[in-house]
Amino acid sequence: MRIVAPLDGSTAAAFCDNKVTNSRYTVWNFLFLNFYEQFRRPVNFYFLLVASLKFISIVAPVNPLSTLLPLALTFSLTAIKAARDDIKRHKQDAIYNKKERKVLNREAMTWETRTNRSIRVGDVILLREGEDIPCDVVVLAATNPIVYIRTDNLDGELDLKPRDVVAPQLSSDHRGGDDVPNAIAHQLLSVDDSCASIVGKLGQMRVTCSDPSPMINCFDGVAEFFFSRSPAAETVAANNSAPMRVSLSENNILPQSCVLKNTKTAICLAVYTGEDTKCCLNKRNPKVKWAQIDRDISKYAIFVFIFQISCGFLFGAVGYLMNKNVEKTYWYLPMTTGEDGLAFGIYTLRFFLLTTVFIPISFKFVTDMSKYYFALVIENDVAMHHDGEWCNVRNSSIVEDLGQVDYVLSDKTGTLTQNVMEFLFATINGERKCLAPVEAEEVQVSCGEHVLHFGRVLSLCNTVEVVYDDVSQEMTQSGLSTGCGAVGTMRYQAASPDEVALCNGCEKLNVRLVARDATTAAVEVNGIKEEWFVHYVFAFASEFKTMGVIVEEKSTNAIYYFVKGADDRILEMALDENSSTGGPQWGKGERMSSKAAILAEVEHYAVFGLRTLLVAEKRLTRNELDEFLEKVREAELSMNNRKEEIYKLRLEMENSVTILGVTAIEDKLQDHVPETIRSFLQAGIKVWMLTGDKVQTAEQIALTCSLCSPGDCVLRVLADKLDAFESWEGYMESLLQFSKGVMMDVQYGDAGFPTGSSSDPAVGEKVCAMGMMQKRNGSVTTETNESADVNPLSTGSSYVLVIEGGQVLERILTTPSLLKLLTELSENCASVICARTTPKQKAAVTRLVRSRGFITLAVGDGGNDVAMIQEAQVGVGITGREGKQAARAADFSISRFSDLRSLVFVHGQLAYNRTAFVIKYSFYKSVLIGIIQLVHNIFHTHYSGGSFWDGFGLTLWNGLYSLPQTMLYCLDRKVPRRVLEQTPALYKVTRSGVDLGVCQFFGSFIFRGVFQSILAYFLVLSVHGTGFASPNDAGQSAKDVAFTLTYAILILLQVVTVLMESHTVTALNAIFIFGMPVVYVAANMIYSSLESFYYYGVWKKTTDIVSFLTCIAVVSALVVPVLGVLTLIKIWRPDPRDVMRSAELRRQANDPLAVEKRASVSRLSRCLWCVPEEPSTYVTVVLADDELTIRNANSV
């Protein structure tokens, strides 16, 4: 609990200052902390250990610089990147912390300028419109009775949110008539008060609030005012007088980083500062996600490491046994003093260090840089650019996972649909009303008294704000008078688009909400103004699934509780049919007294894919209202169990309501959603829809968006079906057997509906839960499916599983036996629909799928999807009308669901293919140079642990000589974009992980490297001989000539290998591929010309015709067998991607337009049969030429 006394020094000293720190390092701890973070990674620690061991001369076979220099380079580049990013954060922190504010000085009785960082708890701050809020504050006075804030910096939502001023309530009588029937709030302060007056008044109050909490919509507090309750009194009350207490809630708190809007001036009290603010408490390091390809390579790296350890012990043991008495045979090779007892360890470490090159020190750096490039390409893809929004990559480390997605779990509203609501139909007292325009003409709705009352309830039962765009600030401050005669364009604004749609639709019922503030509202009914008092608002809560208000009509003093919400919840609250007598006092039509009739209406709208709500009311007496307000005030003033007490009061209020009618709202699908989902299904990706809508609506949307087809068999797990069966396990077991095709004796009626089985009465009775999806009376436009009448047990039909959320899904998720059955059942279904799910259940379902080893992609657009998005391996957020909460929590953010096609089929596949090759090639080239070390020791060094290569060559091998062309492979394109977009089935190849499978990694690259390195070594020695001692060269070893020639052969081999494995050779690739031998020659000429190095003169002895012909012959001998094997493999088992690439090449050869595009391709690319890139087939908008130049999709 926190007690805040305004302008009190002891309060300020008790809590932290307002300094904001987002940076991670300082000048003093950067090196230590950054290196510590890097060395925490096992692979980096491994390289550090290797570099350290190489400084022990007795065990080091090569110069320690061969490892230390590449390690230092890699670490330095990583540290520079981290420092650059942190410098940006330091600058942002400095700008924020040094920003000046107006803060009240108690001693000087004036407003003084202070920086953000110097603000403390209890300080009084003067804010102007448009200023961001420096810390968490409550408003003590403002130019408006309600202040507005924009919270997009906090939660991404652009809609303005109202906040109440903390003020004492000076009248608490509840009389009718013209008086406001609830407590009148009176501001303690005024923005026009002098500083001395403000200081004096603030001495009369104290704020008690809860401890800091990261929950944005959580704030409990009480403001105490120590003065008489008389409006005229301003003297401090006597010590024995109880203070006036006012409840504070989330409607009073203004969080840090929000922006003050529509309020000229506000005087605020700081309650949380610095690290205690909600903004800072919500700062947490994002969940670390590793791509599946990183996990695979970690397994391979562990295998290689075990091989290194094994080689160290095996070769060390052999070397020790063969050389322990070597001084007796060779008197000139005496054992060094002190090595007698350490010989085995020395030999073991030598061979371990010789094989450390097997794990390339550069591959992690190369893959990280490739991922960074992939992220840039994704963010600049014009196919994912809509309305000024580009795709945003927040986690580039998992780009490859986009190419291996097994499951897509999607929200519905705002994700598959546009979240643009239109109020189309209403059923009022049993009579359907169509509000939708017919042939662009507005409909005329007959509005009897019951219809008007229905519109009145909808207009008042919401949290909509009425905004007049063309009215001056002074006029809008006049409250209700503005809405009833002011000239201006009126619009509604609310956090939920449903409420805006309902208010707009009510205008067709001749009811119009014209003004609203915290305690009053005004509606026009048939052009006549009605004023209402708002006593209490029950905000929408997911656990209640309702929203309600207690209001009172000013002229008649009629008091009502209006409520709207989900049909299942409202039906629970409704009066029993037997006890329901009489109808609403407003209309003469028949009441909708039958719950069965209500459910029939709800289902009727649901099969059209419409969102439905039930609307109800309850009449209250004055005593009931007074009793409720007293209880709720007592609960709100409590600092213990406040929410629980209010929860109980809400339950008491939500009963015995009378249902007035049903609303039906349309939320249209986004463009290209059906095509996108069909592409996923063709690619072998299973799609699950997780929505909070009712089952019927979810099923119809699934049919509309091609998640299922009219010929699919639907297996439903619903509450009524489960309860009617003997056991839940038995029912789900019957569905499982049905999906496996076991129940072949099930009878089928018309259109493929199962009608039962005489041999299995239990299943036969309950199999009615499994129906065929059919076209609903023209409600959707879809292609006819000729297999609709086919037995769904046949292999030509798919199964769709529909699960009811809430208690049903909760029980399944918490019961192991049911969970196992659900898992098996879902595996037999092409798609799964989970309706009535809560945000927690969405995350639980995602966790369930992920736990089975599948790669999941979760996509959503609202705050209720954040948990699901963070739980999945790949989280995708859609920037929509519900704000940017999901986009901020996601790994990738897009603006449309259809952008997933480009993200998954194009960028995902290309990224996985490129990274897989980079990893395979990195290990391959390391094996090439490492195996020779072992072969050299086996045949020519008596297992002494000597190195065939010199330190200079080892240092440059994984750096200068091979790093550039490896990194630039990220420009390669195995399959053209056009083919990837139009052939989703190719995704199955990438999703299977074949590019980095065991056969590819070990068979095509590791074993190839072993074969080529051994063959190169012996072919070179067959030419130059094995006598490494050269008596004619005064100490110059002939081994250096052999090493130089072998090294040159491996350099040329890399040129040929990269060309063989490349599919697109750009000019940049060509420069580094063909330029690398030139660089090698130049480096060796310089190295060999320096007399201070032992390599002096070696290069001159190597450059003769024999060496040149040897290089050509050996490279040919190394390449031809590999090329032959690869050709046979392609003939025997062709890669579908190569087949499609060849087909695209033939298409372009016969396409006159493609010939012109091909002219822009380099001559080298034409020689290599590279397919030129074409614009995305997803792009429907032609961009300007200059914009295409800047952001070119062809860069992939």
From TrEMBL:
Gene3D superfamilies: Calcium-transporting ATPase, cytoplasmic domain N, Calcium-transporting ATPase, cytoplasmic transduction domain A, HAD superfamily/HAD-like. SUPFAM superfamilies: Calcium ATPase, transduction domain A, Calcium ATPase, transmembrane domain M, HAD-like, Metal cation-transporting ATPase, ATP-binding domain N. InterPro entries: ATPase_P-typ_cyto_dom_N, ATPase_P-typ_P_site, ATPase_P-typ_TM_dom_sf, ATPase_P-typ_transduc_dom_A_sf, ATPase_P-type_domA, HAD-like_sf, HAD_sf, P-type_ATPase_IV. Residues 887-1134 form the P-type ATPase C-terminal domain. It comes from the Eukaryota. GO terms for biological process: phospholipid translocation. Its cofactor is Mg(2+). Pfam families: Cation_ATPase (PF13246), E1-E2_ATPase (PF00122), PhoLip_ATPase_C (PF16212), PhoLip_ATPase_N (PF16209). It is found in: Endomembrane system; Membrane. Residues 13-67 form the P-type ATPase N-terminal domain. Its EC number is 7.6.2.1. GO terms for cellular component: cytoplasm; plasma membrane. The chain crosses the membrane at residues 43-60, 300-322, 342-363, 1001-1021, 1041-1060, 1067-1087, 1107-1132. Residues 101-157 form the P-type ATPase A domain. Keywords: ATP-binding, Coiled coil, Hydrolase, Magnesium, Membrane, Metal-binding, Nucleotide-binding, Translocase, Transmembrane, Transmembrane helix. Residues 618-645 form a coiled coil. GO terms for molecular function: ATP binding; ATP hydrolysis activity; ATPase-coupled intramembrane lipid transporter activity; magnesium ion binding. It is an enzyme of class 7 (translocase). ATP binds at residues 411-413, 499, 540, 564, 611, 691-693, 836, 842, 864-865. Mg(2+) binds at residues 411, 413, 861, 865. The active site is at 411 (4-aspartylphosphate intermediate). It catalyses: ATP + H2O + phospholipidSide 1 = ADP + phosphate + phospholipidSide 2. Belongs to the cation transport ATPase (P-type) (TC 3.A.3) family. Type IV subfamily. NCBIfam families: ATPase-Plipid, ATPase_P-type. This is Phospholipid-transporting ATPase. The lineage of its organism: Eukaryota, Discoba, Euglenozoa, Kinetoplastea, Metakinetoplastina. The gene is Tb06.2N9.170.
